[in-house]
Design goal:
Layout: H1 2-8, E1 10-15, H2 17-20, H3 27-42, E2 46-51, H4 54-67, H5 72-93, E3 118-121, H6 130-141, E4 145-150, E5 155-156, E6 168-169, E7 171-172, H7 174-180, H8 195-204, E8 207-212, H9 216-223, E9 231-233
Helix pairs in contact: 4-5, 6-8, 7-8
């Protein structure tokens, strides 16, 4: 019974653009990610990976803002297209194993066969980040855990770059986590998890693990229900 459940396990993973494009495209990270996913899918797991926008999004947003006055929607759309570019990059890397079409509308995940071991998704519409898309997709496929891969080891009580008193958080409730972050979404927001997505995850009872994408061993440990370097929010 247990092995059959293991075979059906679907992992929803949001991959921060800060990992894909920290400045230039990080091929070392992409190679590590591919090796990790290939190993895990061979062990029976299934992955839905949502790509973030990273520096690509920021550069386009900054450039456009220098020339014209932009609305929040303009900035969001630029970010969304950056996630789609990064998503196509991921889909191409996984060309032998990934579903042939990148998912943009979370509802479309319902049309994808369970036999597809790797599915790539991206941003959809303005008003939130790919974090919310990850939560919406998790809800639609019945996944109770979402992995948020970023470039930080932990969520902190404050920004450690600005506040030396900031303490790392290993486990936190959604109520306490939501009290730490802004309540509104903004296209330039720097938050460990999008506030709209946090509210949705809280309401749907979905656990989120924030893990540094450059620590594949932390990912492996989390999936094995062992202690891991990172922050668990539930």
């Amino acid at each position: 019974m247990h092995s059959n459940m293991q075979k059906q396990e679907t992992i929803v993973m949001s991959v921060g653009g800060s990992l894909i494009v920290p400045d230039q495209i990080d091929t070392d990270f992409l190679r590590t990610l591919k090796n990790f996913i290939d190993t895990e899918t061979a062990n029976g797991r299934r992955f839905i990976i949502i790509a973030g926008g990273g520096k690509t999004a920021r550069r386009y947003q900054d450039a456009a803002a220098e020339v014209s006055e932009l609305t929040s929607d303009d900035l969001d759309w630029m970010g969304i297209h950056a996630t789609r570019l990064n998503g196509h990059l991921l889909r191409t890397i996984f060309r032998d194993s990934a579903h042939k079409v990148m998912i943009t509308n979370p509802d479309d995940i319902l049309d994808v066969s369970n036999d597809e071991k790797v599915i790539i998704a991206s941003g959809y519409r303005p008003g939130c980040s790919t974090d919310l898309r990850a939560i919406q997709i998790a809800e639609r496929v019945g996944a109770k855990k979402v992995i948020n891969l970023s470039n930080i080891d932990y969520v902190y009580t404050a920004d450690p770059r600005e506040n030396p008193e900031a303490k790392k958080i290993e486990v936190i409730t959604w109520t306490d986590f939501r009290a730490l972050i802004p309540s509104e979404w903004d296209p330039g927001l720097s938050s460990p998890f999008d506030p709209i997505a946090a509210k949705e995850a809280d309401e749907k009872g979905i656990e989120v693990a924030i893990i540094n994408g450059n620590r594949p061993e932390a990912l492996t440990n989390y999936l094995a229900d062992e202690d891991f370097i990172g922050t668990k929010i539930s």
